[in-house]
Amino acid sequence: MTNYSTLPPNLIPDDGSPPWMNKGDNAWQLTAATLVGLQSVPGLVVLYGSIVKKKWAVNSAFMALYAFAAVLVCWVGWGYHLSFGDQMIPFWGRPNVALSEKYLLQKAFLGMFPNATMVFFQFVFAAITLILIAGALLGRMNFHAWMLFVPLWLTFSYTIGAYSIWCPTGFLSLLGVIDYSGGYVIHLSSGIAGFTAAYWVGPRITADRERFPPNNILLMLAGAGLLWMGWTGFNGGDPYVASIDASLAVLNTHVCAATSLLTWLFLDIIFFGKPSVIGAVQGMITGLVCITPAAGVVQGWAAILMGLLSGSIPWYTMMVLHKKIKFLKMVDDTMAVFHTHAIAGSLGGILTGFFAVPKLNRIFYGGEGDENGIHLNYIGLAYGIQMGQFQRGLRQMWVQLVGILFVIVVNITTTSIICFIISKIVPLRMSEEDLVTGDDAAHGEEAYALWGDGEKFDSSRHGNSVFEMEESRKPRGAHAEA
């Protein structure tokens, strides 16, 4: 850490900021981190709580809220250094606490801002990954099992992918995998892990699988809107600098998302006759996921093509293939994260290897280049063919596929082991009786009471105030306080 006592007075900033810090970059990085945090809280909390049946609204929203809080504690305790610390093995950092003042005020491993900013920025990415996994498990996972799953999966799965691909010393980073902002580390991981966990937890009860209508579509759209707008920070923050590359990444993100939404919408109209609001949200998500590994390293026209593909290929796998493949039908993936995140994330990774622009890669990655500023290591296949560098372009495609395979294998393995261990401690799945009841059985609370929908307000158990509701939860009988 800088020793200000040795600096000339004219070099010491009035606010005590170190000379290496760029205040504009630091301000943007904190803003981007906040935008990503808002995608989870309240974005996905609202989206999950409103897209499920009324009886699961509280449980679904609370799974997201709990994950956000639990990940932060684990992240500063050991997760950050496992993901970005000193190398322990080629795919894992050395665990350590990231809370000491001396460490937090030092310069981050990339960017002109302190570690405190980087720790927070990387935390919101880790948190949203766990929350996306929750989407596959809504409507039946035992909340106590979820409480154990979050820290275990963060520790033994997320950190491996983050270190391998994003840390400068990770083996896939050194190999040359392009994952601009988390198509692999976040979306492919969460899609595979969510699908795997859904297999081990088991399906919802038959009544819920057959009919699972949203309890509030307008509120669902509000959550989806927060998710979409928050992606400005998701992809715009990953250059770690307020640069032209960040601006390009933001524009490409929204262009791809809009194109994907419209593509999905038109396919729904053509094949099913009606424009589905839920379908439009799914198309929005697949577009955002697909562009994420490529956001700042492709041209705008490529972002549009990626939107067309992300709005059609996941639509086909979800609406057609899913109904034909027995194994896919057997696994109850509540929010279809396998299609919206695993398929869309893999698609984005492959298309990145094809469309990545060498000049833009040089801006993002730095490093060696020729006299025209062309990066010598990161060349998309399309540009490799154009430039007579076919072998380099083909290598980039191969590297992208290796990254996909690694993430899939790691997440199937670690998620399965974690679910097995948890099942020996607490049941992964709620009891059949509790599955029929929902929120009231899981938490003793309900989202809201609607008169006239068959619900009756039990004043003996739930009062009109928070105080009265807490009073109703006090122990009864001989062991109750006098």
TrEMBL record:
Annotated region (Disordered), positions in chain: 458-482
Record keywords: Ammonia transport, Membrane, Transmembrane, Transmembrane helix, Transport
GO molecular function, one term: ammonium channel activity
GO terms for cellular component: plasma membrane
Domain Ammonium transporter AmtB-like stretches: 27-448
GO term, biological process aspect, one: ammonium transmembrane transport
Biased composition (Basic and acidic residues): 470-482
Residue spans crossing the bilayer: 27-49, 56-78, 119-138, 145-164, 184-202, 214-234, 277-295, 301-322, 334-357, 397-422
Membrane topology: Multi-pass membrane protein
Pfam families for this protein: Ammonium_transp
Localization: Cell membrane; Membrane
Family according to the record: Belongs to the ammonia transporter channel (TC 1.A.11.2) family.
Protein name: Ammonium transporter
